[in-house]
Amino acid sequence: MSRLPTLFISHGAPTFAIDPGVAGPRLTELGRSLPRPKAVLIISPHWMTPTPLVGTTTRPTTIHDFGGFAPALYQLSYPAAGHPELAQRTIAQLTKAGWPAQADERRGLDHGAWVPLLHLFPQADVPVFQVSLPSRLDARRAWAFGQALAPLAEEGVLIIGSGSLTHNLYEFRAAHGADEAYVATFAGWVREAVEQGDNARLLRTLEDAPNAQRAHPTAEHFWPLLVAAGAADAGTGTPPGTVIEGGIAHGMLAMDSYAFGLTAAAH
Which residue, among 247, 244, 245, has the nearest Cα to 34 in the 3D structure? Predict the structure, then answer.
């Protein structure tokens, strides 16, 4: 199997599961165009641990790790199988790269994992396992974490960093109506860095991008983008990324996603 691309997906609010907006159908289209993976490895900021943990269960549960939403959301499940063998392979790969990873035999999929997968692979017919996001990262360590996972893309594993291109919980809870102008400005800055393959600029996003502090008062929802970009680095640098347009949800959640290493045939 040729090397699979790596993805960053903006998972938005939990309501993305039942309100696909612009992003949902485009993720479904992307999923149909990709070579079929042996498994999905997904990282979400809703599972953060001091050192990496890897879910090794054969049947991960669907975790409804949110409150105050419509009852219909709590009835949803994503019944994909796990892949213990590739999960163990991931532990070995991370450990080899200097990240002391361990198995977690009970952990299911949090909403940062199963909500976007509902759209990407709606039949839940691709095995999935989750890897925790290390809780003490900066931009370069997030990239290095992705680089540690990069060899798995050669082995049929689709590596996904699930986060949010913008993520200001205070503004989300304030229930804004019209789209905030800063969201498009920040998203455009990141898009340009991704499309140009300007990895140095992407690494400096939270320092240099306009409105970065407002877009990400805390950084955990941005790190999965750098993990995904780092995981596309097979030793010659990360190639320019392809944008999967997602629009803006709730006035302040930029929903664009990115694919790194996507071939023309799969796009």
Answer: 244
pLDDT digits (tens, 9 = 90+) for 202-233: 999 999 999 999 999 999 999 999 999 999 98
Instruction: Supply the mean pLDDT for the chain.
Output: 93
Chain segment 24-69, per-residue pLDDT in tens: 999 999 999 999 999 999 999 999 999 999 999 999 999 999 988 8
Determine the Cα–Cα distance for residues 5 and 267; give it in Å rounded to an integer.
11
Contact by Cβ (8 Å): 158, 41: yes
The C-alpha torsion from 104 through 79 and 34 to 184, rounded to 10°, is -80
Q: Which string of DSSP letters, residue by residue, matches the chain? A: -PPPPEEEEE--SGGGGT--TTHHHHHHHHHHHSPPPSEEEEEEEEEEESS-EEE--SS--B-----SS-HHHHH--------HHHHHHHHHHHHHTT---EEESS--B-HHHHHHHHHHSTT--S-EEEEEEESS--HHHHHHHHHHHGGGGGGTEEEEEEE-SS--HHHHHTT--SPPHHHHHHHHHHHHHHHTT-HHHHHTHHHHSTTHHHH-SSSTTTHHHHHHHHHT-SSS-PPPEEEE---EETTTEE--EEEES--GGG-
pLDDT at 173 over 60: no
- Which tokens hold the place of 234? 């097979």
The pair of three-digit structure tokens given for residue 46, joined into one six-digit string? 């809703």
The pTM for the full model equals 0.95
Torsion, Cα 129 133 139 141, to 10 degrees, reads -90
